[in-house]
Specification:
The complex is a heterodimer of chains A (263) and B (435). Chain A is α/β, with parallel strands linked by helices and 263 residues long. Chain A is built from eleven helices and eight strands. In chain A, α3 packs across α11 (253-260) and α7 (123-132) crosses α8 (164-172). The longest helix of chain A has 18 residues, at 74-91. Chain B is mainly alpha-helical and 435 residues long. Classes of the chains: A alpha/beta (263), B mainly alpha (435). At the A-B interface, α2, α3, α4, α5 and α6 of A face α10, α13, α17, α18 and α19 of B.
């Protein structure tokens, strides 16, 4: 397995007089959550192996404000947004890529109005472009022919209409994609959105992540793919409830590509 | 001209004027209620909006996502639009004492009436299937708690109205001896004629006239019933789709009132002791009642036809939570109607103890939403239940500081260290050097 080489912050690049091609917006989960950090690293490895010049903000990055906004705290959201925009505009950032659909949605759709205009991409869109332009080779490796199902993150799919990029990558991995009945625009939420990630669910007869994981497992897939660190957490928790104890792995698409290439 | 004919023309004129006049009055009431909401300001993207009206409202593109109910609905919708062309003839005949005034145009008339008759039959069949789906098959989304009482009666009444109107149209044609003998367009009614043929010409004429009067009378009654019914969607779906969002579904508008405050707070040159302008009332953030919602959100509420597609797609509802997006829309409408009636009553205004929040919609419902947009995606007429939920959350959090405790922790973490969890912002780049 290849080790990550040094990942510079934007400040370091600026000090060296370099302007990176793209900013990798890591997000809170990607920075702090142990499971999500693996996704962050896998994606960083792919960027490095594709010779993309990128940087992160490091300690200068802060929550986009998505959970605050969806919880109803518009004040906190706009405070966060204006602070982040000040940093991003100060550095002259033009293009942003992120592994979190919530950051993606907020940066892309809600920042322009407040003065933050950037070209924002979800990492699956970015990887797809790298693949089409020949900078990234995506091959199945030991995943070839394996049965997989894909869970659409709401903030990538319904919220922004991106259903294809992740699927194009899965088919390049030569995996056998088995769709759930509720997929694409009819995809069922994992239960984390709208700040639900950070609170106990209301009273009901089932948790949403269990309902969704059961559906994913019922496809008989060996793996569950997704493109969101929060969906990943929710589905990973759900898998633990599998009565057949299959411990089906829940993987981000970036991790699959990196592992297939033995990075 | 005989006096009986003049009398019936006069009666028709009065009936028509009363029916349309009362309807116009109801529409004005409706507009007045919608205007209780916040104005939406400039409407941009007109081209995209018209395209949506053609595709989603006229073209029913989202209705057919569920093929069975979708196709049945297209039949009823097309039937409604097409058969109503016949109403033009009925009105002219009624006012001028003519009989089938357009029949003089010859074979084309026969084709038109023939098509109307076929649609009348198709609508009758579709409406019966709708009734069976509701009352015999008992499809789940029609039997939720919010559908008990008036909503259930309303849904059935609409179907009965349509069954009766379509039957009257066919009976009217079947008992019109001259029309049957001309055999020009009696494609369906010709098969009903044998049931009536044994009657004397006088009786037949009597049945024909009765059916004719009941048909047009029924249409006028139905028109005025709309105001009290979910059936308003046949009119409001069009403006509602026009005013529906043209942004990506994930994009929530940024509150301009908040931007103003936040910019002031972050501006080092702002005077911290500046007094607010004389008489300026501090703006209310979010919504606790219908008057805090936008006019589009209120139009949404009147447009809702309670089909329940939103609720059946809602992850919170599917897992047994209290939240039902359809109920959010129905509650908003019911509250608005109650408030509208209160404002209209001439008597001394009684201070209103009830409001949308807590009086109709509980906090438990509001906090169960995952903002996944499934309800917005599911609505065939571009209603956005999620936006009302978020407006009300904004009121709870920014005006009342009444978020669930865990969320208060999350928010103070974001405020203090820039992440929903209590990690130091300085450690954000630590993953780079962890193996």
């Amino acid at each position: 397995m290849a080790e990550l080489t040094h990942i510079p912050t934007w400040a370091e690049c600026q000090a060296q007089g370099r302007l990176p091609e793209v900013l990798f917006w890591v997000g809170c989960a990607g920075s702090f959550d142990d499971r999500a950090k693996k996704i962050t690293k896998a994606f960083a490895k792919l960027l490095q192996s594709s010779q993309v010049s990128f940087a992160v903000l490091g300690a200068e990055e802060s929550c986009t404000g998505d959970p605050a906004k969806r919880a109803g705290n518009e004040f906190l959201f706009q405070m966060q947004a204006l602070m982040n925009i000040e940093v991003l505009n100060g550095y002259g950032v033009g293009k942003i890529v992120t592994t979190c659909p919530h950051c993606f949605n907020t940066l892309k759709n809600e920042y322009p109005d407040l003065g933050g205009r950037y070209e924002v991409m979800h990492h699956t869109q970015f990887l797809k472009d790298l693949m089409t332009s020949g900078r990234l080779k995506v091959e199945g490796g030991h995943f070839r022919g394996k049965k997989i199902t894909y869970h659409d993150p709401c903030y990538l799919g319904r919220a922004n209409g991106e259903y294809e990029a992740p699927r194009v990558l899965l088919s390049a991995l030569e995996m056998e994609l088995t769709e759930m009945k509720r997929c694409k625009s009819k995809g069922l939420c994992c239960g984390a959105g709208g700040a639900q990630m950070f609170k106990e669910p209301e009273k009901g007869h089932k948790d949403i992540n269990i309902e969704r994981t059961e559906e994913a497992l019922s496809t008989g897939s060996a793996m569950i793919a997704t493109g969101c660190p929060f969906c990943n957490t929710m589905m990973t928790d759900g898998v633990k409830n599998d009565p057949q104890e299959r411990s089906t792995p829940v993987m981000d698409i970036a991790e699959l590509i990196a592992q297939a290439a033995d990075l | 001209m005989n006096s009986g004919l003049i009398f019936s023309q006069l009666m028709f004129f009065l009936l028509l004027t009363a029916g349309i006049g009362l309807f116009a009055y109801r529409i004005r009431q409706l507009i007045a209620m919608i205007k209780l909401g916040r104005p939406i300001g400039h409407v941009s993207d007109k081209k995209q909006r018209w395209a949506n009206v053609f595709r989603i409202a006229l073209g029913q593109s989202k209705m057919v996502k569920r093929p069975v109910s979708g196709l049945l609905h297209v039949v009823v919708y097309l039937g409604f639009v097409i058969i109503n062309i016949e109403v033009i003839e009925i009105i002219i005949d009624g006012l001028f004492g003519t009989h089938r005034v357009f029949s003089s145009i010859g074979p084309v008339y026969g084709v038109l009436i023939g098509i109307f008759e076929v649609f009348a039959l198709l609508v009758l069949v579709a409406v019966i299937v709708f009734w069976l789906r509701r009352n015999v098959v008992k499809i789940k989304r029609f039997w939720h708690p919010e559908m008990q009482g008036w909503p259930k009666q309303d849904a059935d009444l609409i179907l009965y109205f349509e069954m009766v109107l379509m039957s009257l149209f066919l009976v009217m044609n079947a008992t019109d001896v001259v029309f049957q003998q001309a055999a020009n367009g009696n494609w369906v009614s010709a098969h009903l004629y044998p049931f009536f043929a044994s009657q004397s010409p006088g009786v037949l004429h009597g049945i024909e006239r009765t059916a004719w009067w009941l048909h047009i009378g029924g249409i006028l009654v139905f028109l005025n019933y709309l105001y009290f019914s979910k059936h308003l969607h046949i009119l409001l779906a069009f403006p509602n789709v026009y005013f529906g969002s043209v942004r990506p579904k994930g994009q929530l508008p940024n509150l301009a009132s908040v931007t103003k405050e936040v910019r002031l707070m972050m501006d080092p040159s702002a005077d911290p002791y500046a007094a607010p302008a004389e008489g300026a009332e501090p703006e209310k953030f979010g919504a606790s009642d219908v008057t805090d919602l936008t006019q589009v959100q209120l139009l949404n509420a009147f447009t809702c036809t309670e089909c329940g597609r939103c609720t059946s797609e809602c992850p919170a509802h599917q897992t047994g939570k209290l939240l039902s997006p359809r109920k959010i829309m129905m509650d908003t409408r019911d509250r608005l109607v109650a408030l509208g009636a209160q404002k209209q009553s001439k008597g001394p205004s009684i201070p209103d103890q009830k409001q949308l929040l807590d009086g109709y919609i509980s906090r438990e419902e509001l906090w169960a939403c995952t903002t996944c947009n499934a309800c917005v995606e599911a609505c065939p007429v571009s209603i956005d239940p999620m936006s009302i939920i978020l407006s009300m959350r904004q009121y709870l959090v920014m005006e009342q500081s009444a978020a669930p405790n865990e969320l208060n922790n999350t928010m103070s973490n974001i405020e203090n260290n820039g992440a929903p969890w209590p990690f130091n912002q300085q450690d954000r780049g630590n993953w780079i050097n962890e193996s």
